[in-house]
Amino acid sequence: MKPPPLFITLACALTTATTSFAETVKDREGAVRNDKATMENDKRWMYNDVAAGFAEAKRSGKPLMIVLRCVPCMACSGIDTQVLLQETELTPLMSQFVCVRVINANALDLSRFQFDYDLSFSTLFFNADGTLYGRYGSWMHQKDAQEKSTASLRLALESALALHQGYPANKAALAGKQGGPTPFKVPVELPALAEKYTLDLNWSGKVVQSCVHCHQIGDALRLSFRDKKEAIPSQWIFPFPEPETIGLTLAPDQVAHVQAVAPKSPAALAGIQPGDDLVALAGQPLISIADLSWTLHRTPDAGSLPVTIRRANATSSGVITLPDGWRTKSDISHRVGTWPMRGMALGGMVLDEVADADRTSRHIGANDLALHIKSVGNFGKHAAAKNAGFQKDDVIVSIDGLTTRATEGQLIGQLLQKHQAGETVKATVLRGTEKVALTLPIQ
Q1: Which residue of 57, 285, 348, 391 shows the fewest CB atoms closer than 10 Å?
Q2: Domain of residue 286, CATH code
């Protein structure tokens, strides 16, 4: 069967857009304009018009699927291609939704669009009345093979349709999934973004420079606390924790299927076992790993989470108890939002823990602080540590009174919550076999 012209055009555009990261970065403007030119002519999609999507969902009775995609970013390009192409296994499911594609965050309603802002591909499923059925998109989907992500998205689509068919009888169970009040209505009201961006993209000029990327929302929210001389809340230093934070390894091609459980972790202590399926968390029906991360994101720094488990076709209930400080176990090293925090807290250093095998030769105890400086920045705020005398391959063994084992993220959290710009902290580094005392400026 000969594919329709639009399919050929779209396939060619997507193939061109994913040839190499370097080419995409070189022509970010072209990538965004090509996306618009292609998608505006695709009758399956509403392009950058959320209001029209909700209106059509109300008229048709269909649920609403809103894809948020940072086009120039190559991460998630594979699954994005599968979503956009017309002849995939997702097509019959997607045809049951009103589909909206959003490529910028300028005008997002922040009380409604609350998701992991560090991702380059996220999907939210709504009822026409604004009730959110669930979220899709996580770091697991961003880094895993395309076919696994496509399988998990298919299951999320099926689960969202099932929730839609059961609505509004199930509305109470969905209450925890909804966004909440925010101090800013839209991203361009955030002080860090207000002077540079407007609600609308500048299609007649440099469109890329007029676009608010989703990760800038998280960056600007953190800065809003710093500007008020307030500590950044831990949920914005460690946003949307991954399942591993509570000891779970989940299958990337399932909704929430447990592959492994870390010994003595909160998940293990709750009785969760490999092979289990997590059906609901905090009373919320799960349609994806992103739903689990959302629930963790909204959980207090210490507390308990009711969990519903399916094991061998039998369903049971349990409770995951989260100890004080559980959130700091979240690995934030890979997040784009961590880079500005490195500038604020670490003066631009990138750190990782010294491996156990290397500690003995350096006379460092197993439970002692030992953060290896992988790199120091060279420009602006990210050059502050270098200018203060910190060097690549130094090992931080004491900083701000912290001498016990900690990750880079845990150190960032301590410094951002205890100190404001203009303050300094004392540090000691190992440089070879010599201990060197240094002072780190907080920015």
Answers
A1: 391
A2: 2.30.42.10
Amino acid at 279: V
Which 8-state DSSP code applies to residue 402?
Answer: B
| Distance between start and end Cα atoms, the chain | 61
pLDDT given for residue 193 in this prediction:
97
Give the whole-angstrom CA distance, residue 188 versus residue 148: 35
For residue 168, the domain's CATH number is 3.40.30.10
User: What is the sign, positive or negative, of the torsion defined by CA atoms of 86, 92, 93, 97?
Assistant: positive
Whole-number pLDDT of residue 2:
40
Q: Is residue 75 part of a domain?
A: yes
User: Do residues 134 and 257 share a domain?
Assistant: no
Looking at the structure, do residues 311 and 391 belong to the same domain, yes or no? no
349 and 303 in a common domain: no
Shared domain check, 341 and 310: no
Residues 319 and 361 occupy one common structural domain: no
Cβ neighbors of 321 (< 8 A, separation 6 or more) are 266, 269, 270, 303, 304
Do 356 and 431 fall within a single domain? yes
What 3 state SS string does 143-193 have? HCCHHHHHHHHHHHHHHHHHHHHCCCCCHHHHHHHCCCCCCCCCHHHCHHH
CA distance 322 to 234: 15
Query: DSSP code of 323?
Result: -
At 88 the pLDDT is 78
Q: Of the candidates 105, 384, 341, 346, which has an alpha carbon nearest to the alpha carbon of residue 223? A: 341
d(CA 379, CA 213): 22
Domain total of the chain? 3
Using the structure block, give the residue that is written with the tokens 């925090």.
341
CA atoms in the 13 A half-sphere facing the CB of 288: 30
List residues bridging with 351 in a β-sheet. 373
Instruction: Identify which of 310, 246, 247, 244 has the alpha carbon closest to the alpha carbon of residue 275.
Output: 310
* 134-149 confidence digits (pLDDT tens): 999 887 767 665 567 7
List the domain range (segments joined by +) for residue 355.
337-441
Q: Which residues pair with 225 in a beta bridge?
A: none
- In angstroms, rounded to a whole number, what is the distance separating the alpha carbons of residues 345 and 427? 13
